[in-house]
């Protein structure tokens, strides 16, 4: 994988701290791929243990990342694992995953 693609994944990862720093509010974050403002995200998980996954995507170019096994911050709104896949997919669009180079 090219260095450019690898750095694109890292740029997406850097958005995680930006998102968490602004919770419970959201701020207009720029997409690392197309540079449009409006990156969106969603936590999904066990609402009791606050463990789940996080999805971050751009609604314009439909690229983003999926991060498994994260702690869901108390101030974040999260969807429950108990919701049907259809309800979760209503919130999270079908997008292209940016993958890391291992």
How would you portray this structure in words?
The chain is of the alpha/beta class and 102 residues long. The protein has one domain. Helices cover 26% and strands 27% of the residues. The protein is built from two helices and five strands; from the N terminus they run αββββαβ. A five-stranded mixed beta sheet has the order 4-1-2-3-5, covered by helices on one side. The chain is globular.
Summarize the structure.
The protein is an alpha/beta fold and 102 residues long. The chain has one domain. 26% of the residues lie in helices and 27% in strands.
Characterize the largest beta sheet: strand count, sense, and whether it forms a barrel: 5 strands, mixed
Q: How would you write the strand order of the largest sheet?
A: 4-1-2-3-5
Number of strands: 5
Number of helices: 2
Q: Any idea what the radius of gyration is?
A: 14 Å
> How many structural units, i.e. domains?
1
Report, as a whole number of angstroms, the end-to-end distance: 9 Å
* Mean of pLDDT: 90
Secondary structure elements and their pairing?
Elements: H1 3-22, E1 40-46, E2 51-57, E3 63-71, E4 78-80, H2 85-91, E5 96-97
Parallel strand pairs: 1-4, 3-5
Antiparallel strand pairs: 1-2, 2-3
